[in-house]
Amino acid sequence: MIMAFSGPCGRLVGAALLCIGLTLPVAAQQVVTPDTFIRAETDRMFSDIAGLAGGVNKFLHFRGPTPLDMQTVIRMNRDTLYSGAVIDTSQGATITFPEIPDGRYASILIIDNDHYTPKTIYEPGTHEIPADTPFMFAAVRIHLLNPNDPEEVALVNALQDQFVITAKAATPLPAFDWDTASLDALRAQYEAEAASLVNFNGMMGPRGQVNEETRHLAAASAWGLFPEWDASYLNEFPGLGTDRCFTATYAVPENGAFWSITMYGATGFIEYENSVLNSANTVLNADGGFTAFFGSTELCGDVPNRLDTPEGWNFMMRIYKPGPSVLDGSYRLPEIVPAG
């Protein structure tokens, strides 16, 4: 639920999508290897999410902006409200996408049990869910224009309830039987490798259309993300401290929906409330770009477009329905430099 759904267990409290002890050890666990990592990681996501939703063919809805103490996975955002469901497609299944009254962004990303994404849905209507694997995942995202407006949140909640799954079977998921120690170790290794990536291009998409040599990095560090033509993700790991204010000036990326920047700590979780810049809350410069500041109020002063910086700070720019300059790689993030 860049979505992305991914991250170490034990992080959550309360009712959220992942890692609250649902994945319990069972007999004869299979050791996870590089060849089986993606399936094992996806099995864990499916098992935990279906458990929290109350079974297959049922949505688990996020009803408000991601609470800091209920982050289900690393690198979540607060610009969309998420809904997720594991669906039994063995005998056929459909999903209904409602009319969106105000033209806001909404989507359904379909993910199979091997973390391929055969289909993305943007249009209202009833859509057949591909049955590439016996169980498939539907990730719904709806743009939240103002997370601090209760009426706005209520409107999106009402839209969430209008997404409907119809399935002809409801077979329980098989028990999760992967060894979590080896799974967690590989994930940590792959997350470290992914930290040097500029983007995830080529790692997501339909079976047969992705880079099989690198897509495990996306499964480890950003489970559930879009193919780059649906959304582009630009990572920034500046390796800078929290003892001074930093700044950079950005061009607004070409997009057909919206863009956002979300700040994370060293472990990939949002640590402060003031962690998001997006197309709805950013003050633009006269030329249409924007200048961002990274650091506390004490260090940066009372400036617009400021994000608090936790230890090991890093961020991700998300660009929904990216334009040509983003897709061809000519759009680049600028260098971050000391302010003043």
Q: What's the quick description here?
A:
This protein has 340 residues and is of the alpha+beta class. It has helices spanning 37-53, 150-160, 180-194, 215-221, 297-300, 324-327; strands spanning 60-61, 80-88, 93-97, 106-111, 119-121, 125-128, 135-143, 164-167, 231-236, 246-250, 259-264, 276-278, 290-294, 306-307, 314-320, 337-338.
Question: What tags apply to this protein structure?
Answer:
signal, 17% helix, single chain, 340 residues, 16 strands, DUF1214, 6 helices, Jelly Rolls, DUF1254, DUF1254 domain-containing protein
Distance between the termini: 36 Å
Poorly predicted runs of 5 or more residues: 4-23
Sheet of most strands: 5 strands, antiparallel
Average pLDDT taken over every residue: 91
Oligomer: single chain
